[in-house]
Amino acid sequence: AQSVSQHNHHVILSEAASLELGCNYSYGGTVNLFWYVQYPGQHLQLLLKYFSGDPLVKGIKGFEAEFIKSKFSFNLRKPSVQWSDTAEYFCAVSAYSGAGSYQLTFGKGTKLSVIP
Amino acid sequence: ETGVTQTPRHLVMGMTNKKSLKCEQHLGHNAMYWYKQSAKKPLELMFVYSLEERVENNSVPSRFSPECPNSSHLFLHLHTLQPEDSALYLCASSRDRGNNQPQHFGDGTRLSIL
What we know:
heterodimer; A: 116 residues; mainly beta; 6-stranded mixed β-sheet; 4-stranded antiparallel β-sheet; globular; B: 114 residues; 11 strands; 0% helix
């Protein structure tokens, strides 16, 4: 079964600082990768996804993520964060789970607090 | 607006009560999911329905009973819950169960067991 690790539970940054949130997964086969964001009091929403092709994917609101297959990583980055980026960020991996099914497995999430 | 609506938003119930959580999706999706979100733990997949048929049940206690009467509606019936069942319950849907289908989430029902 696959698993997803997010290295930081809580990250605190000042506005304009650069952001990198780590995500590693364990699964030996083909995966699809996602980052979801949950703003305070709101639903989980898709930030970006990687299926194939260019390992550097760009999402909404200036976020990007790089898939490094050799490191089983899919780290999320943003060059300059804003106060409105304060949210919880979840990395997720979709992989084959047997019997013709695919399962989406989430990490524990990283809470980002941006200080004005 | 997410396209996935969950009711109620908050629910407080005693351990002997029976209640139901409702989820409705307006996206024309064929797959629906129930997740449990507890503090400091990954989202836990509870149930998966594809075309109204339950395709996955991740060792969830029988005090949680899902129902999918059609592809747009999903219920989670609750009975004799325990305090550790207090959590945010999220419903999600996707176009199908393919590997590359992103899931669309509702706002969740915050459940508190007294």
